[in-house]
Amino acid sequence: MEQRFNLFGTETGTKIAKRFAGLGQALHQTSLPAITAELVSLRASQLNGCGFCLDMHVKEAIAAGEDPLRLHLVAGWRETTVFTEAEQAALAFTEEGTLLTREGVSEDTWANVRKHYDDEQTAALVCLVGMINAANRMAVITRQKGGSYQAGALADFKS
């Protein structure tokens, strides 16, 4: 499938993208570990089928020093031994926050997140899951392709 619309080729799309980049920078300034944020973004992007975001978050994670093997195992995180308990809690939270039901995130998953993350980190996780899902949806709707993203490209894309 070809890209159907260049969202970033419009004034509106560019303004929104700059604000998303600014929100992303704010999240990176929290105490939530950067690798956890990339794992969360990668898992939501896998679930949503967003090639552009998969490309971006794999490259950003590698640039941040993440082991590529762990990135290959994110989709099957429950069946591996390479993720910490805190990362597993964040990944479960991501899945439930992405594949919403009427319950939203289960009480067990919420309790596990709260066991591993303080208030500021929990706030960052909630915002991150919401933001990556919104970004995934915009990219999937417009059929934005992955493959050409360069690590760090969004760092200079501020309002």
From TrEMBL:
Taxonomic superkingdom: Bacteria
Domain Carboxymuconolactone decarboxylase-like: 16-96
A GO molecular-function annotation: peroxiredoxin activity
PANTHER family: 4-CARBOXYMUCONOLACTONE DECARBOXYLASE FAMILY PROTEIN (AFU_ORTHOLOGUE AFUA_6G11590), BLL7811 PROTEIN
Name of the protein in question: Carboxymuconolactone decarboxylase family protein
Protein source organism: Lentzea alba
